[in-house]
Amino acid sequence: MRNGIPHLGALQAFEATARLGSFSRAAEELSLTHSAIYRQVTGLEERLGVQLLTRVRRRVAVTDAGAEYAARVRHHLEQLEKDTFGLISRSGMGRSLHIAVLPTLATTWLLPRLPDFQRQHEDVVISLSVRTLPFQFKDHPFDAAIYHAAQIWPDTAGIKLFDERELLPVCIPELRDRAKASGRGIAGLVHLHMSSRPDAWRNWYKAQNKEYIPSISAGPRYELFTMTLAAVRAGLGVALVPRFLVQQEISDGVLVTPAEGMLKVPEAYFFSYPLVSERSEALASFETWLAQAAHSSKEFD
Fold it and tell me: Which one-letter DSSP state was computed for residue 93?
């Protein structure tokens, strides 16, 4: 310990163990052995004179003091990561950007187009991390974010990529045919829900002047559109999804709409970065490329 500051390795071992709830999982994440992680955390507790974790057989629980300390350590580790990215981006080693993204938009829209950016800017490294909820840039190691919102985040600058426009019900053809044969229509199908949009189905039924019966709410819930679409393709039910995510599969007949009507969505997808930081050349290039990619996307013609 130097000037009261514990060894960085011990702090990393403790933060990973507290976050993952397991010495073994922390060891796997940090590419160390179980015993090495255990020794680091135990040594940290001995130096601090504070119990950070409780150990019951193979289970690890964080004490109140440990939870508070872990949150502070996590914040500083993330800041250190951000500072490191910044140093690399300003050095002759190349330029780096760390972008927070929505997982489904990243896998279905951004990543398939990213090779075009890399061809134009071979010296810029784009790293992506998933964030599904709003956050403060000062608390996270990101240069910018791509997110879904009603407007651009406060204290940021950037661009609107595109409007989401609408959600529509989709399922596999077999389920549509089953709904028709039952005489109950879409109401007879299992409804799949998004945790982040709990009222979507209720609002869709209201928009179509249809009755929203209680059994509709009993369907499974998923955190991501990626999961929801996988469930739809597996035939687990019908879901409301943005048209641009499924337009090609509808055109190919892989997915169908079992009922007429859509739900208008006022929100859009944005790209922005904090105003407190000077926009780097790499960030400016990425913003320009994103605007061009969004403008030329066939999904929004």
Answer: T
Residues 122-165 have pLDDT tens digits of 989 999 999 998 998 987 889 999 999 999 999 999 999 999 99
Structure tokens given for 110: 């951004």
Strands (E), the chain: 53-56, 59-62, 95-101, 124-130, 144-149, 156-170, 191-194, 221-222, 238-242, 263-274
Where in the chain are the domains?
Answer: 8-85, 95-301
More confident residue, 269 or 55: 269
CB 256 within 8 A of CB 250: yes
The dihedral region occupied by 210, where left means phi > 0, alpha psi between -120 and 50, and beta the remainder, is beta
Helix and strand numbers, DSSP H then E, in the chain: 11, 10
pLDDT category, 2, cuts 50, 70, 90? low
> CA–CA separation, 136 vs 283, rounded Å?
18
Contact 27/34 with Cβ under 8 angstroms? Answer: yes
Mean pLDDT throughout 33-58? Answer: 89
For tokens 């997915």, what's the residue?
255
CATH fold for domain 8-85:
Arc Repressor Mutant, subunit A (1.10.10)
